[in-house]
């Protein structure tokens, strides 16, 4: 099978190739750091005056335009037409478009094709979304790690979890490098952007900038991290001011970084580009999920030689790695493809926004019927149509943990009507369990420390999800020991398993009365 795949790939790559210009900008950082304001300024959109917290993720697809001739980002995007994909005859027109594209040399295009749309993803700073952000992290992205530069990076807490600005930056750096699996020593590129320059006295700005840079340089000393992180310069902007010269410098820096990406201008099979554009056209029409069977049908209508099924799977796999679609090669999930990347966030949003109605969610519990109820509202009816798929997808990403329980007698699976949602747990452990039972004469434990970085949020959630899928939560002093960063489960009559996640991950096996 592997041999066949390789052969298919080689054959595919010797065929009709066209250059692909693909990049994305991801703006991350703590809650209220100024991400949305920065993005509006970057893309030339009206800068919001009224503060509105970002809910989930805002994706401005194609809003930032890159001019291939000047190799620069265009400042104002208003008035410039987006490459427009017509609804009728989509296939024919797309394939014609690709033909034209292929005939031109890279530097000599006719007007409209000079401009490549670059998606800008504006992430929500709230903790609850961190667990899903991993699905958007790709190795060919440019990340703007944003923070409020007017505050003290070492001591000012800027987050619901009350961690410092520096700790928040460290968390983002480690998550990005962990999830993007960098195959290249420079990419992804991480650029640090401090906002709120206007709140610092003019004469103190140079001092403040070098102070921040020193703090950051002292924090990131690992060579493998430093090669991705731009530490020689700190952009310090007033994100509210569209004429801030440093905004222009930031734009220029992003332009250069885009072209330095080894994948920029890489040649790909023509069919890949046609199918990709076709997906984009379907998203514009409001579709966010399609079946594998439908993709197969589309593939036969692209006007050029269709891809074989293996090649099609390869294409979908590549698109998934790039974060453009969700295609999971798992028997329970492979029949559908989510073509709109914001869809997963909307699924999570559907759960998050239900907290006031479903109180048990604060303890991380959600019944299957509650989930169906949430999705029966008009807003989320699309998820109800593909209920099985989306439930499985949430389980796959460890957002939902399925409790797998089996009958002792016949080994058959028992139906459990409840999911656990680890990332939603907010209750704190107020019991005396830790003092009384996590003591050296009753337990053995080991602690995982992550060298060079902190523990990304999704890892403890994943660990807790898999533990809960197997064992039952321990009840102690009439309280379930399932709290934020702390869970205890019953292994057998004498033993409990405890997991504590703070800056490290600690796992303990606790005996009822002795070691
Ligand atoms: N004075 C000043 N205010 C800023 C600057 N950047 C952002 N703000 C303000 O800070 C507040 C938060 O900005 P947002 O852009 O919404 O922050 P965010 O990071 O997108 O917040 P979330 O989406 O909730 O995580 C808003 O009231 C902005 O007007 C800046 O450079 N200077
Ligand atoms: Mg925002």
Automatic annotation (TrEMBL):
<dbReference type="Pfam" id="PF16095">
    <property type="entry name" value="COR-A"/>
</dbReference>
<protein>
    <recommendedName>
        <fullName>COR domain-containing protein</fullName>
    </recommendedName>
</protein>
<dbReference type="InterPro" id="IPR032171">
    <property type="entry name" value="COR-A"/>
</dbReference>
<keyword id="KW-0677">Repeat</keyword>
<dbReference type="InterPro" id="IPR027417">
    <property type="entry name" value="P-loop_NTPase"/>
</dbReference>
<feature type="domain" description="COR">
    <location>
        <begin position="269"/>
        <end position="414"/>
    </location>
</feature>
């Amino acid at each position: 099978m592997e041999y066949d795949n390789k052969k298919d790939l080689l054959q595919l790559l010797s065929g009709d190739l066209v250059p692909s210009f693909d990049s994305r900008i991801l703006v991350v950082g703590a809650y209220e750091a100024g991400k949305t304001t920065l993005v509006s300024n970057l893309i030339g959109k009206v800068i919001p005056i009224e503060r509105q917290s970002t809910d989930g993720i805002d994706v401005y697809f194609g809003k930032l335009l890159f001019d291939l001739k000047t190799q620069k980002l265009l400042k104002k995007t208003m008035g410039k037409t987006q490459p427009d994909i017509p609804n009728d005859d989509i296939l024919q027109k797309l394939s014609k478009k690709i033909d034209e594209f292929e005939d031109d040399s890279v530097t000599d295009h006719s007007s409209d094709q000079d401009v490549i749309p670059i998606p800008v993803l504006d992430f929500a700073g709230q903790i609850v979304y961190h667990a899903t952000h991993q699905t958007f992290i790709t190795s060919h992205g440019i990340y703007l790690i944003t923070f409020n530069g007017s505050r003290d990076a070492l001591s000012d807490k800027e987050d619901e979890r009350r961690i410092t600005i520096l700790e928040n930056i460290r968390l983002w750096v480690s998550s990005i490098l962990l999830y993007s699996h960098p195959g290249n020593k420079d990419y992804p590129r991480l650029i640090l952007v401090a906002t709120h320059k206007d709140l610092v006295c003019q004469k103190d700005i140079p001092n403040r900038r070098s102070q921040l840079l020193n703090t950051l340089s002292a924090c990131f000393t690992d060579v493998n991290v430093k090669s991705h992180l731009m530490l020689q310069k700190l952009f310090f902007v007033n994100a509210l001011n569209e004429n801030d010269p440093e905004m222009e410098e930031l734009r220029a820096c992003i332009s250069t970084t885009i072209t330095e990406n080894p994948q920029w201008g890489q040649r790909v099979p023509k069919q890949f580009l046609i199918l990709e554009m076709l997906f984009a056209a379907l998203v514009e029409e409001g579709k966010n999920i399609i079946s594998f069977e439908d993709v197969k049908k589309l593939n036969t209508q692209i006007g050029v030689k269709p891809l074989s099924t293996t090649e099609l799977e390869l294409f979908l796999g590549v698109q998934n790695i790039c974060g453009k679609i969700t295609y999971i090669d798992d028997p329970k999930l492979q029949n559908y493809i989510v073509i709109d990347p914001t869809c997963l966030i909307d699924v999570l949003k559907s759960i998050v926004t239900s907290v006031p109605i479903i109180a048990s969610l604060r303890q991380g519990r959600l019944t299957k019927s509650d989930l169906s109820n949430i999705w029966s509202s008009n807003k989320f009816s699309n998820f109800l149509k593909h209920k099985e798929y989306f439930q499985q997808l949430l389980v796959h990403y460890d957002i939902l943990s399925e409790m797998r329980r089996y009958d002792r007698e016949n080994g058959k699976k028992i139906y459990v009507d409840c999911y656990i949602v680890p990332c939603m747990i907010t209750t704190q452990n107020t019991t005396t369990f830790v003092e009384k039972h996590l003591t050296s004469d009753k337990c053995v434990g080991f602690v995982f420390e992550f060298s060079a970085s902190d523990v990304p949020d999704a890892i403890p959630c994943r660990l807790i999800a898999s533990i809960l899928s197997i064992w039952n939560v321990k009840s102690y002093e009439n309280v379930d020991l399932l709290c934020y960063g702390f869970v205890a489960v019953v292994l057998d009559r004498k033993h409990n398993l405890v997991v504590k996640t703070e800056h490290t991950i600690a796992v303990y096996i606790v005996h009822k009365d002795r070691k």
